[in-house]
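Is 6-O-phosphono-alpha-D-fructofuranose placement plausible here? Inputs below.
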Amino acid sequence: MIINRQVLTLDEFTIHQYRNFPGATGELSSLLRDIGLAAKRVNVEVNKAGLVDILGDAGSVNVQGEEVKKLDVFANDHFTGVLKHGISCAGIASEELDDIVVFDDAVSNNSKYVCMYDPLDGSANIDVNVSIGTIFAVFRRLTQKGSPCAVEDFLQLGNKMVAAGYIIYGSSTMLVYATKRGVNGFTLDPSIGEFTLSHPDIKCPDKGKIYSVNHGNFFQYSDGVRKYINCCQNKNKDNGGPYTQRYIGSMVADVHRNLIKGGIFMYPGTIDKPKGKLRLLYECNPFAFIVEMAGGRATNGKERILDIQPTELHQRTPLFIGSSQMMDELERNLNQD
Ligand code: P6P
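Reply from A.M.:
I modeled the complex. Tokens:
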């Protein structure tokens, strides 16, 4: 039997990373495999979402007599469950939960990492079959190993992040994760039920021709943002304009496309919501880490996302993220604000 060593599974890849990283304990590899397992379980349910009439709506009881959960609650339960019963995570923070969950058992209290995530971002799009995703970030805990983790473990600067990633449940299901050693993408192969390395060493093109923003808020944006949007729409021999506007309304799908093809995604602050809509800890920070590791940039319009000191778990921030040259162009317009 010929073993194709070229197509590494996520498990093989993380173990390969562990074997080649002096001093690694294997806890991060184990945590990433745990996330991959939860992602496969969530993927099964997300792919059935269109059958809700058969399977029953959230809150109902299905034919097996089981309570049907909202998919984002289902996803949250699965990611929290695998991490709680793993060996690498002392606790989690989730978009679905007001407070952190401290696992507080002997193994978890001795674990090196904490994890925060949006278990199913864009879940409102499920009913219309638009791609949705899970977004996660991993930090080394600050509190003493052997004791329960605490909220300060979660309110760290994004530039202290150890790893970040996302799963996109779309035309195919992909898991993309970044460490300081690079960004790699794995596509779920249903024939073997494994994520397989399909996008090694992802780089964000320095420039692209896609800009992503909700035009419905145009007149609520700052002058600089409006100037940049006009710049994207105008013929311009210097930057290859006009650009194409692509906005799915599902952050994982929009940022994933722009990461691969080049482009810029913007969720600016508005008059009504100066901090914008997106959450710092488990949406903007992880994507800022991933895109920067791939060669792009991410700011709140004034400072690097990864340099923002968090003060609360669910705080929001404006977000501008994508190809480095497009971010430079944006900043030239914002600086005229
Ligand atoms: P709007 C989905 O609800 C989400 O949190 C992100 O995935 C997405 O980028 C954003 O909101 C879309 O928000 O206000 O443009 O509909």
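Short version: The chain has a mean pLDDT of 92.
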